[in-house]
Amino acid sequence: MKVLTLALLLSLPVGPLAPPKPMHQPTTQATKHSKSGRWYFAASGHAVYCYGPVMTVPRANGGLQKVATFCRDGSPVVPLKD
User: Fold this and answer.
1) How far is CA 31 from the centre of its chain?
2) What pTM, to 2 d.p., does this model score?
3) 63 pLDDT higher than 80
4) Do residues 52 and 30 touch, judged by C-beta distance below 8 A?
5) For the chain, first and last CA: distance in Å?
């Protein structure tokens, strides 16, 4: 009976001996959004990568300004060059 129990225990599959590696968890705001984004040309002359939609917002002088939203640099809104 002991031999049968020992044979049964030895035939069971054994898991990995090393603990699993922890997964890398990115914590930046940009990585919290979906991976689909787009490059835009900002009014400041720089290229910005943004994840949100392009919106048209009113300017102080009564005109309209296109802005990109949720950009990788952490800015919620970036004015775009027309």
Assistant:
1) 2
2) 0.54
3) yes
4) no
5) 84
The whole-number average pLDDT for the span 31-41 is: 75
CA distances from 15 to 4, 9, 18 (A): 22, 14, 9
Give φ, ψ of 80 to 5 degrees: -105, 155
32: three-class secondary structure by DSSP:
helix
Question: What is the DSSP pairing of strand 54-58 with strand 47-50?
Answer: unpaired
Confidence of residue 30 (pLDDT cuts 50, 70, 90): very low
Long-range Cβ contact pairs of 44-52 (< 8 A, separation 24 or more): 44/79, 45/81, 48/72, 48/73, 48/75, 48/78, 50/78
> In which element (H, E) is residue 5 found?
helix 2-11
